[in-house]
Design brief:
This protein is mainly alpha-helical. The protein is 63% helix and 3% strand. A hairpin with a 2-residue loop joins strand 1 and strand 2. It is elongated, with a radius of gyration of 24 Å.
Length: 304
C-alpha cells in the first residue's frame, strides 16, 4: 500500500492499483495450478476484460496446446449454441438460428475455395465473412481478423479479392441511392462501376458496362428526369446489378440475418480474433496443433 501497488477499495479490502498486475498474477496462478483451471478460463472467452489474461497465460505455459485447443472448442460452441453440445433439445427458433448460421458459414467456405490467392485460406474466409455482413454490423468490412491471420492482406490485394471488394462497394453505393440523392451521387455510382482495371478478360466486365449504359446521362439529362428515372427503374436496376454479381462472383447475397444471428457472428469473430492473437503470441505450441487450428478457423462445425 505504501508504494502504491495496492489500494484500499473498502475497509480491509485491497486490490492492485493497476489492472496489469491483477492480469499478470491471475495468469500466473493459472499456470502454476493455484488458480482456476484452463477449462474454467475458457468460459470467460466472450468477456473482453479477460483478453490479457488469455494472452499472458498462453505465453507463460510451457505447453500451450491444451489451452488453445480448449479455446478452439469454445469458439465452435459460440456459433451453434452450447445447447447443441449439451444435448439439450433445441427450440424451433434456435434450430432456425443454427441452420441460418450454418448456411452462412458454408457459403464462406465455398466462396473461399472458388478463388486462387496466395493468402492463408482462413484469412480469405475472414475477408468474405465481413464482406457479407450487413453494412450496419459493427464488423462489416472490418478486415482486422483477416489481417491478424495473414498480414499480407495489408498490401496490394489479389485481383479476385480486389474485384469482389470493388463490386461489393458498387452494390452498396447503388443500394444507398434514392430519387432525392441520385442526381448528386450518380457520378459516384459511375465511378464505382468503372472496374475495367479489375475485370480484365472476365465476362462480368461486359455486363457491367451494359448496366452502366442503362443509367441516365448527367450531361444530357436534367435533375428532374434523372430523379424520375430512378423512381421508376432504380429498384429493378439494383436488382439486376445484384443478380449479376451473384451469378458471376457469388457475392452480394441477401442473407437476412436476424439480430440474434448478427450478435452471435460478432461474438464468433471476436473469439476467433483472440484465438489468432494467442497463436501469434510467443507461446509454446506444437506444429501439429497450430496447423489443426489454423486449417479449421472459420469453418463450419462439421470441418472443425
Amino acid at each position: 500500500v505504501q508504494h502504491g501497488l495496492l489500494v484500499e477499495r473498502a475497509r480491509r479490502i485491497y486490490s492492485f492499483s493497476h489492472l496489469t498486475f491483477q492480469e499478470y498474477f491471475t495468469a500466473r496462478a493459472i499456470v502454476i495450478g493455484t488458480g482456476m483451471s484452463l477449462s474454467q478460463l475458457v468460459q470467460h472467452l466472450q468477456d473482453k476484460r479477460w483478453r490479457e489474461v488469455f494472452l499472458l497465460t498462453a505465453q507463460m505455459l510451457p505447453d500451450a496446446d491444451e489451452l488453445l485447443l480448449l479455446i478452439k472448442q469454445q469458439v465452435n460452441r459460440l456459433v451453434y449454441a452450447e445447447m447443441v453440445f449439451d444435448s439439450v433439445k433445441l427450440t424451433p427458433g434456435a434450430m432456425a438460428l443454427g441452420d441460418n448460421l450454418t448456411k452462412f458459414l458454408n457459403w464462406i467456405e465455398s466462396k473461399s475455395l472458388e478463388i486462387y490467392t496466395p493468402y492463408k485460406p482462413a484469412a480469405v474466409r475472414a475477408f468474405y465473412m465481413t464482406l457479407a455482413l450487413p453494412p450496419s454490423h459493427p464488423l462489416s468490412r472490418n478486415q482486422a481478423l483477416a489481417l491478424a491471420i495473414d498480414h499480407r492482406l495489408g498490401g496490394e490485394l489479389g485481383s479476385e479479392l480486389a474485384l469482389d471488394l470493388a463490386l461489393d462497394h458498387a452494390l452498396a453505393v447503388a443500394q444507398a441511392m434514392t430519387p432525392e440523392l441520385v442526381y448528386d451521387r450518380l457520378s459516384a455510382l459511375y465511378l464505382a462501376l468503372d472496374l475495367n482495371h479489375l475485370t480484365g478478360i472476365e465476362s462480368i466486365g461486359d455486363y457491367l458496362e451494359k448496366l452502366k449504359n442503362q443509367l441516365p446521362d448527367l450531361d444530357d439529362d436534367d435533375r428532374d428526369s434523372i430523379q424520375e428515372w430512378w423512381q421508376s427503374h432504380g429498384s429493378e436496376w439494383v436488382s439486376q446489378l445484384r443478380a449479376l454479381i451473384i451469378e458471376h462472383r457469388n457475392i452480394g447475397h441477401q442473407w437476412h440475418l436476424s439480430k440474434t444471428c448478427q450478435d452471435w457472428l460478432e461474438q464468433y469473430s471476436r473469439a476467433n480474433h483472440l484465438l489468432v492473437e494467442c497463436l501469434n503470441s510467443n507461446c509454446q505450441l506444437s506444429l501439429t496443433v497450430r496447423k489443426e487450428i489454423e486449417d479449421t478457423l472459420l469453418l463450419p462445425l462439421c470441418h472443425s
